[in-house]
């Protein structure tokens, strides 16, 4: 049986903050590299590299990835959801800003909070926690309102793709917690996701007529290396471990921190405009995180 905790302890909180910080930066890395490395080809390189790293990690630690444990079909489902999320993110970044896309992607906690308690009653949120989610949701709505009237058709398409990516992420977490993967190792759960994505993205790259080459600038390879080693391998493996040992509704809501980091990186590194709508959205996100993770009175 999995030793599942009921609250986020300091170790989990530290890991989450570190993951969220990198995920905020990761959107910047993807966006600044996509002009040189086509999006699906970029994702293909990244995921293939992550699969190799994960297999080396598992071999060193004696973790079995290919033993029959009844997780194949649920693993393929989770892999398909994960791949769909990343396709939406990579394409969406070609239409909207990195900070906006990240805010919309992190609507995923709403999907988890609404659906997961129907299958796992212990994941049910209390009233004050729902208030926190609603406040955070209002913040997202405020940010999304910026798209109407002043945004181009292309930016609206990017926003919709980001929202779809958030939905797919939420469904991925739901599938992990409600299928045989709930008791599988973090490594095997991640293997299904990056393995399917590594198989799908090259096909999409060919369908989009992207040019395949490996002659890129030093910055492009540095960006891809960070996305591969820290992003697709280290932080995603840490996230799988968290989902296996902590309440998914709580850790999912905690990821609302990522738009904070993305906004800071977007403004500082990409010189994106700091709008009032995004500031209000992020205030709502911060208040929501505090309320969702507030412990019940004894």
TrEMBL record:
Tree of life domain: Bacteria
Pfam families from the UniProt entry: EamA (PF00892)
Keywords tagged on the record: Membrane, Transmembrane, Transmembrane helix
Regions crossing the membrane: 12-29, 41-58, 70-92, 98-116, 128-148, 160-178, 190-208, 220-239, 251-270, 276-293
Membrane topology: Multi-pass membrane protein
Transmembrane helix found in the keyword field: yes
GO CC, any one term: membrane
Record localization: Membrane
Family: Belongs to the EamA transporter family.
Residues covered by the EamA domain: 16-143, 158-293
UniProt name for this protein: DMT family transporter
